[in-house]
Amino acid sequence: MRHDNGTVVLEFILLGHWYLLCYPRLLFTLLLIIYILSLMGNSLIIYIVRMDSHLHIPMYFFLCNLSLLEILFTSTTIPTMMIVSLGQGNRVSVLGCLVQIFFLHFLGCTECCLLTVMAYDRYMAICRPLHYNIAMRKSICLQLAAISWVGGFFDGLVLTIVTSKLPFCGPNEVANFFCDIPPLMKLACTDTRANEAILSLAGSLLVLIPFLFILASYFHIISAILRISSSQARWKVFSTCASHLTVVSLFFGTVIFTYVIPSSSYSINRDRLVSFVYTVFTPMLNPLIYSLRNHEVKEAIKKTLWRKIMTPSDLFMR
Fold this sequence. Notes:
Blueprint: E1 11-14, H1 24-51, H2 58-85, E2 91-93, H3 94-127, H4 132-135, H5 138-164, E3 173-174, H6 181-185, H7 193-226, H8 231-259, H9 268-293, H10 295-317
Parallel strand pairs: 1-3
Antiparallel strand pairs: 1-2
């Protein structure tokens, strides 16, 4: 990118987090383990839902979409972070940086939408059970999933185009493990208040509004649960929402802190730490949360693994 003074920025240097880079090999190993666990966990969720006919319902259809999204999300960020942790190839072209920003926001916005759709699914199942089969029929579920992915795509595209218009004339050191809009705006050779306003607007529309919708859904859900007379029945109904509520708290808490709260209100180091949490730990924890807190998923995993173990011996007996 050429600025008026003639300076050309051809690449950015990813600095990572100095306090995490004190032990580069340990950090690389940790990232590798987390990446493998995330890929395995989310792939297992998709496989289990596909193999068990009892899970062929809207809630698990959206869970499969979420797991696929987490696989793509971690593949967008963690490999770059692993390279940076070893100090190898921590330079990235301007185009490569913009591509990473696009996928980061495309997938992040899609996750916001999917979590909102999953909250709507739980609301219909618990508060409007007589209308559930009509409201959440297959064609509607496909449309809701498609809207989530398409909405995320356009959000990532718009924010990437806006960021690409920023002039960069040096320095070119990005205070993060990967490219993102907030640290890049700090390097721009121009007033970025318009960009900050666009980012805050996008955060309000695509993060805060879905989050408020989820809160409203759970207000009605909890109200409906409290009206159930049996404590055992109340816990059984609430357990179907516990996993989703936990994931929502982890994801929206960190994303709101990073993209909605004004940048002047927190330190760069704290911002980098928060971004590290939601790009690394949250995608790994999601399948773990759903498998440990969801009875149906646990039973499906047990049955599928048992079939895999028993199949060879069954063939031998025959």
